[in-house]
Write a structure and sequence with these properties.
It is an enzyme of class 1 (oxidoreductase). It catalyses: N,N-dimethyl-1,4-phenylenediamine + anthranilate + 2 NAD(+) = 2-(4-dimethylaminophenyl)diazenylbenzoate + 2 NADH + 2 H(+). InterPro entries: Flavodoxin_fold, Flavoprotein-like_sf, FMN-dep_NADH:Q_OxRdtase_AzoR1, NADH:quinone_OxRdtase_FMN_depd. This protein is α/β, with parallel strands linked by helices and 457 residues long. It has two domains: 193 residues, 3-Layer(aba) Sandwich (Rossmann fold), CATH 3.40.50; 199 residues, Rossmann fold (3-Layer(aba) Sandwich). 41% of the residues lie in helices and 17% in strands. Strand 6, helix 6 and strand 7 form a beta-alpha-beta unit. The relative contact order is 0.12.
């Protein structure tokens, strides 16, 4: 007689063989496909890259006729999204003439590679509670009207394709309340029409047994990465409670105000116009204020562009002691430290944040990745921010009126950023529907609201 545990193991093995045979048979029946893997961590040793490597090796063995393509968005080759690209997107919304600029053509090339893939794998490590800025930049290119979604029905055009989303974090649990990146990725994938979204979530160090287990899980999922008929990721558009201001925030005399704007559209940006009008009132009514404006929208390209957060930046942030990378890391850290110095040297903050593809603009996320640094803006031991007692005003705008809905990922992103560095209390002002005829009226209402929040007449 066999021991009970042996019978159990034999049963497990037979079940595993049955599934392996079933999916091997399915892979033979499928015509040749193209798998696209999107890499967003610059570190070869990252957990997401290791899991992705295990998946691809197993997939190549199981689907020998398929082609595997890679796009590494972390290497700095992605073109910026300038005002030309934004205008082209607005023209597409309104059915205007197609843009023929070289900048727009680069976006279309990225979209074509994305759309031509039959299956996708997205490696998305957690960076500052969210996703890397360069992955956000990639999706800011990909989400385009008539290309990947129907602007008339808000229906995604990428239906029927399986996606594997790999998320990893060292400390903040994936899927917890402090993880705003996973809801965003699921939201944007659902918006694009993906319904078959499979996941591997990882929380822990990169040298644990858990990593080995997850790599084995990835190998198993690779053998089963075939098409399904069932939809598993519905997109719900429901109204949620908007963020309330945390009391009246009176700006004191001689305050240092640090304002961050993040749109490349200059005076055409409604969020910029609101904060500009508000700050003019502040300078007129509050004695001796010192104003510093950081226009991230003007730092998307050119000599003054905001540098991507590279592998050397990550090494510096994590405190790697490898002599071969430490010098480069220290040089990169100097750049971040200058951004941090200007950020910390303020008493009051004002943020103008337009919604870009359900979240914040990639350029704002890139800046956040630079300024959120251990022992500079947050305490890694106590897990709390170091900029406590400093109030902020946050103006958010959405042309389609999505703020406060289940598709609003801007609000939780900004809320978690403020909590991460300790900024608060925070007063929020929403501009919903700014692409309509009431744009000028909404700007005036928002400016008046900010004045009330600041206790101004």
């Amino acid at each position: 007689l066999k021991p009970a545990w042996l019978n159990h193991r034999v049963a497990e093995s037979l079940e595993s063989l049955r599934f392996d045979f079933m999916f091997a048979f399915a892979s033979v029946r499928e015509p040749p496909r193209t798998l696209l893997m999107v890499v967003s961590s610059p570190l070869q040793s990252s957990v997401t890259n290791k899991i992705g490597k295990s998946f691809c090796e197993a997939y190549a063995g199981a689907f020998t006729r398929d082609k595997i393509k890679y796009i590494d968005v972390s290497d700095g080759h992605l073109p910026p999204i300038t005002s030309t690209c934004v205008r082209a997107k607005f023209m597409a919304y309104s059915g205007g003439d197609k843009c023929s600029s070289e900048e727009w053509q680069k976006t279309l090339n990225l979209i074509e590679t994305f759309k031509s893939a039959d299956k996708l794998v997205i490696l998305a490590p957690m960076w500052n509670t969210n996703i890397p800025a360069e992955l956000k930049l990639y999706f800011d290119h990909i989400v385009q009207p008539h290309q990947t979604f129907n602007p008339d029905t808000a229906e995604g055009l990428m239906k029927g394709k399986p996606v594997l989303l790999v998320r990893a974090s060292r400390d903040i649990p994936i899927g917890s309340a402090n993880d705003s990146g996973t809801p965003y990725m699921l939201g944007i994938l659902g918006f694009l029409g993906f319904t078959d979204v499979r996941r591997i979530d990882y929380t822990g160090s990169s040298s644990s047994q858990l990593l080995r287990d997850k790599c084995v899980e990835a190998e198993r999922m690779a053998h089963q990465f075939v098409f399904k008929d069932s939809a598993t990721l519905p997109v719900l558009l429901s109204r949620l409670p908007t963020l309330e201001m945390d009391g009246r925030l009176k700006i004191k005399r001689h305050s240092k105000i640090f304002c961050v704007t993040s749109s490349p559209m200059a005076s055409r940006s409604t969020s910029k116009r609101v904060v500009s009008d508000f700050l003019q009132e502040v300078e007129d009514q509050v004695e001796g204020v010192e104003l510093t404006v950081l226009d991230l929208g003007g730092m998307m390209s050119g000599d003054n562009h905001l540098r991507p957060f590279t592998a050397a930046d990550v090494n510096a942030k994590l405190g790697f002691a490898d002599p071969q990378v430490q010098h480069s890391a220290n040089e990169e850290l100097k750049y971040s430290m200058e951004l941090i110095r200007k950020f910390r040297d303020a008493d009051v903050y004002v943020f103008a944040v337009p919604m870009w593809n359900l979240g914040i603009p990639y350029i704002l996320k890139r800046w956040i990745d630079h300024v959120v640094q251990p022992n500079e803006t947050f305490d890694p031991i106590l897990q709390r921010g170091l900029l406590t007692g400093r109030p902020a005003f946050c103006v958010a705008s959405s042309g389609n009126g999505l703020l406060g809905t289940s598709l609003d990922h801007l609000s939780p992103m900004m809320k978690q950023f403020f909590q991460l560095v300790g900024i608060g209390p925070v007063a929020y002002t929403y501009l919903n529907g700014t692409s309509g005829e009431r744009a000028a009226e909404l700007v005036s209402e928002a400016t008046r609201n900010m004045k009330r929040q600041a206790g101004m007449s």
